[in-house]
Design goal:
This protein has about 325 residues and is of the alpha/beta class. About 45% of the residues lie in helices and about 20% in strands. Strand 2 (about 25-35) and strand 3 (about 40-45) form a beta hairpin.
Length: about 325
């Protein structure tokens, strides 16, 4: 089954687009007011002639597709990506729409286990100002401590108001070794001197993803330190802006994404768009301001469950699929 979405300033205009693309046999799954863009229609058509699917099964497929389309629309997932997810889910023989969405997310997006963060390679956090990089760095050190490992916290953000005091407080509470470094050479020296089995997390200054000078400095630092780049991005942002930021950081060399403040947002199309545009794999998720329990692994099932509810959730809901 092929599923697509169409928009028009009016319902007749949107319907004309449906018929032109899918023909008169198209099945209308949903019609929604799309705000400033007008009207949005989600439609489907059987992709293979002679399909002998029983009517009951076909109705179940359409109902499932309609539910997934509604969820993706609520989260403002960009239309092209939403169509890809719908088609990936529609081609699966799965009765549970959450699991069908999870399989589609796994097909279109990347996911990496949090256990991959270790002493072998420093992890350098990059992202816009206010995204939560310093808190995320502390949470990663907390994860290391819970696993019985030692950690090195390298901060390049000590010059901001209260930055050094905050880093010192985090390091003392978490038993992490703290080094303040101002540039690529200092960061590289700090990570070279890390002890055996010591995980290194580098907290960078907030950056403008569209400023070439700032990105060049981050790239030079990552190269000097031999660090892997992970983007830290707040949930709830505009999907188009987030996609542009994800693409910019992806071109810089970032491979992972850690969305933050999932507990304080109800629309997650931005982080999904950023991951897809930048080729970033979900590494973990920030679900609380509390350091000790505020960072959890992310996987396709937990993300599908999160997308499927607009109600307040507990951090443990993201762990249910682990």
């Amino acid at each position: 089954m092929l599923l697509r979405s169409f928009t028009g300033r009016t319902l007749p205009e949107a319907m004309d687009k449906v018929r032109a693309a899918l023909g008169d046999e198209a099945i209308i799954l949903s019609t929604q007011d799309d705000g400033a863009e007008g009207v949005k229609i989600t439609a489907a058509i059987e992709s293979e002639a002679g399909d002998d699917t029983a009517p009951e099964a076909l109705y179940g497929e359409l109902e499932q597709a309609d539910r997934i389309a509604t969820v993706l629309d609520h989260h403002r997932v960009p239309r092209g990506l939403a169509d890809r997810l719908l088609n990936a889910a529609g081609g699966l023989l799965i009765d549970d729409w959450v699991m069908a969405l999870a399989a589609a997310l796994d097909h279109e997006l990347g996911f990496q286990p949090l256990s991959e963060v270790g002493p072998e390679q420093p992890l350098m956090l990059v992202g816009p100002s206010g995204a939560g990089k310093s808190v995320t760095a502390a949470k990663l050190c907390a994860c290391a401590r819970l696993a019985g490992a030692s950690s090195l916290l390298v901060t390049m953000d000590a010059d901001k108001a209260g930055g050094r005091a905050q880093a010192e407080a985090f390091a003392e509470a978490l038993g992490a070794r703290l080094v303040c470094a101002a540039g690529p050479e200092a960061v590289a020296a700090a990570v070279r001197e890390r002890g055996d089995g010591e995980m290194a997390v580098i907290d960078t200054v907030g950056s403008n993803p569209f400023d070439e000078v700032e990105l060049r400095m981050l790239g030079d630092t990552a190269e000097a330190a031999g660090a892997r780049l992970a983007v830290v991005l707040s949930a709830g942002g505009d999907p188009a802006e987030a996609a542009d930021a994800g693409l910019a950081y992806g071109e810089l060399g970032a491979t992972a994404l850690i969305p933050t403040r999932l507990d304080a947002a109800r629309r997650f199309g931005g982080v999904i768009a950023a991951a897809h545009a930048g080729g970033l794999s979900f590494l973990a998720a920030g679900v609380s301001r509390h350091i000790g329990a505020g960072l959890v692994p992310a996987n396709p099932v937990s993300l599908a469950r999160l997308l499927g509810t607009c109600e307040p959730f507990e951090p443990t809901s993201l762990l249910a699929a682990e």
